[in-house]
Design brief:
With 113 residues, the protein is α+β, with helices and mostly antiparallel strands. Helices cover 28% and strands 35% of the residues. The chain is built from three helices and six strands; from the N terminus they run βαββββααβ. A hairpin with a 5-residue loop joins β3 (52-55) and β4.
Length: 113
Amino acid sequence: MKEFMMLFHHQPDKEQPSPEQLQAMLAKWDNWLGGIAAQNKLGGTNALGFEGRTINAEGLVTDGPYTELKEIVGGYTIVTADNIEEAVKMAEGCPVLAEGGKVEVRDIMIFDK
């Protein structure tokens, strides 16, 4: 088994969802993640906040992420799978896809000490 990270890309919302919309959205995420957890393949998941900084090679630190960008990374999930095809299959049910977003699936490289 290998570990894979799913990064959730989406366009920033211009409007705040209503409490009902937020609850419906969270229920979809809970159901999807619950299905992965039921297979004992969920390693962890988190949403990313709006506070951040970017540091470039020259050491310049700038504020970010920027909500005026076309796309942001809103969160991530770690899963275990036999191969990337299985991890991609798990990602196919991600709620961000129904909202026009995308899921980037990456293998996690483990380095021996």
